[in-house]
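EI: anyone free to look at a 272-residue chain?
SC: sure, send it
EI:
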Amino acid sequence: MELKAFIDVMNRLAPPETALSFDNCGLIVGTEKTDIRRVLVALDCTTAVADESARVNADLVLTHHPVLFNAVKRILPDDPETAAVYKLIRSGIGCMAAHTNLDAAEGGVNTELCRIFGLKNTVVVPPENIMRVGELETPMQLDQFAKTVEEKLHTTALISGEDRLVRKVAVMGGAGGGDCAFAKEYGADVYLTGECKHNQAIAAGVLGLAVIAAGHYETENPVLEPLIRYLKANTRNVEYILSGSNKAVFRTCRGSNDNDFVYFNLVKEDQV
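SC: here you go
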């Protein structure tokens, strides 16, 4: 399949014009190949994913997070910001990202979270059009909902707010802690996101909004399999591989009791 035609298919799902202004979406690392036959799909193009793409003879790596987020002045194999890019270029493999445009897409990150939790009567929250707010099929207590989050996203959840009945849920995968006010404005009882800073959780409490921080990777990774299904249905003669190197950056560590967990979150100010 022509690379240009593949990009057109991705852009129909996640139009680049819906990306936020700070973002870096689209084809980030070019390739001399005009046709692609094999695409490796991952949340991030880490050096491990770049190595994997060469091992499986991929023509393109498709990621959610851009492999280059900020401008760089040099591409070096030992620079953390450009090491993966260096490996891709050496192997002649391209890299494309669908980031906030996939967050905003119907069939993207946040509509998948709505599907996972069975939210109904969902609405899109402006001005960014990324957050979704919907109603639970059956209202439940906050702590019970947090346990459901843990089970469905295979994560350990951090909860801000006292246990109470939850009817309406706002969702935004990734680092959405800065948007608590929008969740409250649209009537949410609890805001499910990947990461929330300490001061953001305090502000949410003043608003009367509970927050569940369930992990950046854990709230965004579920979109990859539906994304592959979409691509398979809309392209021909292309093989899609879900990366085996696509793993969470942080992991939980067990205490002396099996139910004791510590979860670590890293927040970047401009990353959603």
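EI: Residues 255-272 have pLDDT under 50 and may be disordered.
SC: 👍
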